[in-house]
Amino acid sequence: MEYEIKQSGKFRYVEEGTGEPLVLLHGLFGALSNFKDLVDYFKNTHRVIIPMLPLFDLSILDTSVSGLAKHVQKFLEAFEISNVHLLGNSLGGHIGLVYALKNQENVKTITLTGSSGLFENGMGETYPKRGDYDYIKKKTELTFYDPALATKELVDEVFSITNNRLKALKVISLAKSAIRHNLGDEIMDVKVPTCLIWGKNDTITPPMVAQEFNKLIPNSELHFIDKCGHAAMMEVPDEFNKILAEFLSKHKG
Fold it and tell me: How much is the pTM?
């Protein structure tokens, strides 16, 4: 997959297809490749947009879930994108929820997969000695039900982030922000239709997290996928896309 990353001012993004806007929000270690199958499928029916979240470019004070939600807001306002279908994986789901809670008039649906916001087991609050490749490899493998999906390319990408002192500090800052910014008391205020697509074998945001989201969000539906970890859209794309397509078709127009 080689999608063109466009730039306009301070915003970098991918945009494919036409139709109702489907905005994809990536997680803390989310590469574009995580959304490859999803983009390939939905660009035929939707205007698929991936804003590149400035995880490592904000000031340390703004390196937070709220800071990234503000970036999403500014991005959508700058391009006058309205009535969006928001989809977020992991930290991206959390960011999407924070944005939606303040801008529900602009959100048509929300889809969450492995989202933080209530509870998560992340990389932890500290990293071992920089340069511990095997540790990062094992942690990356835990993202998936099938550890073989943690390719060398993916592990190398995560390793390069964690081996950069400033980026590692920002990862820790974002992880702590996600834990502090718990949405348990606000989540019931989400009124837009919400689809929860979750791996039954997710160890980072376990199935009970999905059940709690489902219980707290009034207009939500929950779909579990067996033999699947934290990145369902990447690990079982066919099943994920089928569930999402059915959900979006119910809320079209």
Answer: 0.93
